Structure formats: structure tokens, C-alpha cells
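Dear all,

This email documents one entry for the complex benchmark we are building for the journal club exercise. For each entry we list the sequence lines for every component of the assembly. Then comes the predicted three-dimensional structure of the complex as a C-alpha cell string, followed by one or two observations. Please use this as the template for your own entries, and keep the labels exactly as they appear.
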Amino acid sequence: MKRGAPGLWAAALSVYAFLYVPLAIVVLFSFNDSMLSAEWVGFTTRWYATLFADQQMLDAAANSLFIALSAASLSTVLGTMAGLAMARRRSAWLGGLPLLVLGPVAMPELLLGVSLLLFFRQVLDLTLGLLSILIAHVTFSIGFVAVVVRSSLAMLDESIFEAARDLGASSWQTFRHVTLPLIRPAVLAGFLMSFTLSIDDFVITFFVAGVGVTTLPLQIYSLIKVAVTPEINAVSTLLMALTLTLIALAAKLAPDALKGRL
Amino acid sequence: MPLLEIRKVSRRFGDLKALDDVSLSIEAGEFFTLVGPSGCGKTTLLRMIAGFDEPDDGELLLDGRLLAGISPEKRPVHTVFQSYALFPHLSVAQNVAFPLEMAGVGRDERRRRLAEALALVALTDKAERYPNELSGGQKQRVALARSLIDQPRVLLLDEPLAALDAKLREQIQGELIALQRKIGITFVFVTHSQQEALALSQRIAVMNQGRIEQIGAPAEIYNYPKNRFVADFIGTINLLPVEVREAAADHLRLFASGLGDLVGPPAATARPGQHGVLALRPEQVGIVAGVPAQELGNHFQGRVRDYLYLGDVTVYKVALDNGVIVEALVANSLPGPTRFLERGDPVGIAWRRDAGVYLHD
């Protein structure tokens, strides 16, 4: 951008303001020393203290972390395998696979939530709970991991994998000593993205959670139905910080993969 | 017994015949080159030897043992890829020691052989560098050291010089020949450059459209091409259309329409009345201003059409009376400023009666 284009700067600033001012207000009011969020009274961290004393909130957070870690681990393994298969493109059948893996990513969440609910209840006859949430989260995360892994493979010279075989490495040794080290940043980025998607998810979780189990977004929603308390601002701030950190980390690990190259 | 034997190998990709009944054998310690235009099947053949492809028909034998079904990692054959295919996440030392590590060679042994391999390609001081810190020539030497460290029976080289600039390419050609002589490992080299093939090889196989056109030593291929394709592909050549008048044991009497009679070297396949070409290298054609040199044998009149000054030599294109254009190569061996014949100058051209090769249509 040319220096001295104030119009452009103003436009850019207002777009960022549009995006981030509402978030900044949530952060700001999480430190506001007032039960009513309407005006600024003074700085405090007591809402965070309240938050960490709220057993329901802590249980929900524990569930969310457990689900996010498990879902991210599973999606990373499955998504990496899918990405490797897609990059190889040995058959016409595999040529169509990228779209299939991306289906759950592109589908409206509402639709995915409803169809997963029907599937769990009427086909599997599964009791809704941690397991159903976990499976649902894996479903929509695999595609992201697969795409990131595939695009990182696409940037590598294919002959290095042949070179490894040529120089005496078995298929497993090639994967262990060549492929995996080279795609490790993408795999990690995929893991972080899956984790973020899982911990933030509301819509799909809402459908498949059942009655007994609650996650952090569900808990926030149930509180918000009563009133927006500063405690909600506090938990939202923490969730936001975690998400942004993970996304930034993922973007650093696999910069090209996150630019949406499919 | 030859080290590597290729017997009646064919390979089709859809409608395309990549290899069509190819047979050849390569001796231990040989520097053998497969040369041909792109798409001639040379890379397919190389990939079969490496184990990345299998023939539809025919068989490959290494040390008398069938290679069919043996996967690439189990063949005592390594490849230097065109892109070098160095592992970007491994240092030079780790790259070079890779085959030993995969084979589970012990630490001390590995260290000793790594030092040897790095010394062989003069890269000892670059051991801790990473591939992205190396020049093209250094990458190439890493790829060589990596492929030679566990002493394969055959080293395959897939156009390894294509990515280098001309000056470096010449230097590395010399290094490759010296290296191959020193270690005595069989090299099978693939290139589309006839110059590389002539400069490097002990024997050359010229390939075209999946078939082998001719196999022989560089001088044999250059001087006695078997057919028009080889004549045309290897070096520059003049093709003068002729008709056979008489086929004697020690010479041919030929007739070039619009020029007259001439004499050529004997050819077993020539029969009187047959049409063909006399293939003559530009350096075999002499050029003189004015009257042609009678003593050379075949001599004709023409006019300079064009010339190309290349420093060491000048290539004249001379239009003969019958319209055929003949290239003649003149060495610029006289000191002082080079004097050129100008476009349109009448000249005589001449060549020895035993020069060239007769190729029938």
C-alpha cells in the first residue's frame, strides 16, 4: 500500500473496528467492577475468581477440554491418513475424495447437527453424551486436517519419497524418517485447528449433547438465557484468548495451508 | 555374464508404447548412456531398473537374477534424480548416511563410511549444512555421495546435469567420468543431450519412440549411424539425396540429381537403382573459394547462403546447384582476424570418397 492514502487506512481501520470492537467490549467488561454491564465502574478481577469457584462452569470446561483433546487427536490421525491418500491420487476414486471429506466442513452446521442426532439415536441407538459429542466433533474436523496435510504434501517434491525407497527405506521407514518429519508442522496445525473447532462448537454439540453432559459453550448459552453476567464475559475472554492463541500457532506452523489453498 | 540384462521389454501406457521390445545388456563397470528425445522411453526404462515400474512383457535380470517383483528398496540399485531429491529436513551428513541408517549399519561403521563418501565428493566441510544452503553443483554431489555410500551394483542417473548451467555442466561431466573410473560402479546415465552422451559414455543406446535405434561406442554411433534418426539426432549432419548406380565391395557409385556422379564408402545394404541419402558430417566437407580441390574426390560448385561464426569454427551453409544445402565446418585456426566468405560468393565444396555413410530410404 502506498503511504499517504488516508482513505484506505480509514477504510481498513473501520473494517477491523467492525470485527473487533464487540470482542474488545466483552474483554473490557470482564474486568468491570459492576454487576450490570452497562457502564464502566472500575477495574477488578473478581469475576475470574467467581468463575473459578463455579463448579458447573468448571465441569463444563473439563468436558470441553477432554472432548477437544480427544477429538483433535482422533481427527489428526484419521485426517492425516486421508490427506496422505488424497495426495497420492492413485485412482479416479480417490480423486473425488477431497470433496467427500470436505462435505461436513461445508455443510450447514444445523443440518449436520440434525443428521448426526438422527444417526446416533435411530441408527446406532447410542445414548447421547460425551461419546456422541466426540464422534460429532471428529466428523467435522477430519476434513480440515486432511486438507492441511494434503496441501503441505503438494508443496513437496514427490521424488524425495521415491528417493527414500530407492535408497533402501521400507514404506514404514519412508513414512517415519521422511514423510512425517516433513508434514509435522501441517499435522500439528491440523491438530490445533481441530482442537479450536471442537472447543468452540455450539450448534452441533447442542444437538448431540443429550441431557446429562454440558460443554463450555452450552453452559455459557444456558446462563445467557437468564442474563449476561460479568462472569460470562470472563469465561468468554478466556475462551477467546485460547482460540486466538491456537489459531495463531496453527497459522505459524502451516502458513500456506491456512490461506485456503485446497 | 552381463551385469544387467534387459530382455524383450515392452511397456504400454494406454495407447502409447513407452517401450517396444527393448533388449540390451550392460557390463559390470560400464558407463552406459540411454539417449533420445523426450518421450523416447529412456526414463521409463530407468524406472524399471530402479523398481518403480514393471514391464508388461519381457524381463530384467541383475547378476543373472530376475528383478520382477523385487521392490525398489530391496534392489542393489540407486538413482540420482533430476531434482536431486535431497531430504530437506536432513543435513548433508544425514542425507548421505541415509541408506546406511535404513539398513541398520552400526554407528562406527556408519561414521567411517560417511567420512569416505563425503571425501569422495569433496564435501567434508559441508557435512552439517542443509540442502537449501547448497549450490546446484553441491546438491548434485550430495545426491551422488548418498547413492554411492552403500556401493550399489548399478547407479542410475536421470538427467542429473539438466538443471546446471553450461560451464558447471562441463566441469561436472569431467568429475563424473573420473568418479566412475575411480569407484568402478556401473553407471546407467539418461540424457536427451547427444553432447553429454558422446562426452561421458563408454557405450550409448540411442532410443526413439520406445525402441532402441542403435547401440555402440560414441565414435561408432557418431561416424557410422545406422539410420537417419541416429544420424540426425547425434550431432549435425548433411543428408544428400542420391541414387545408387553401382555397389562395389570397396565403394559405391552414386548419382545426385542436378549435381552429377559421386563416390561414397561401401554399404552392405546398397543395391543399384536404390534411392537413399549420403550422410556427411559438416567437418568432413571442405570448402574453398573458387575451384574445388580435385584431390579430395567428390567436388561440386555452390554459393554461400549463410554462415554462423562460433568462435572456434565457422559453419558455412552452401547451396549446391541442385538446391540442396550442405553445411561445411571451417576451423578458425589461422591467427589474426577471421576472414569470412560473404553471402552469395561462389565456392567449391569437396569431400573424401570414403567419407560419410550411405543410408537407403
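Observations: Chain B is about 25% helix and 35% strand. Chain B touches chain A at residues 50-52, 71-73, 77-79, 81-83, 85-89, 98-99, 101-103, 146-147, 150 (CB under 8 Å).
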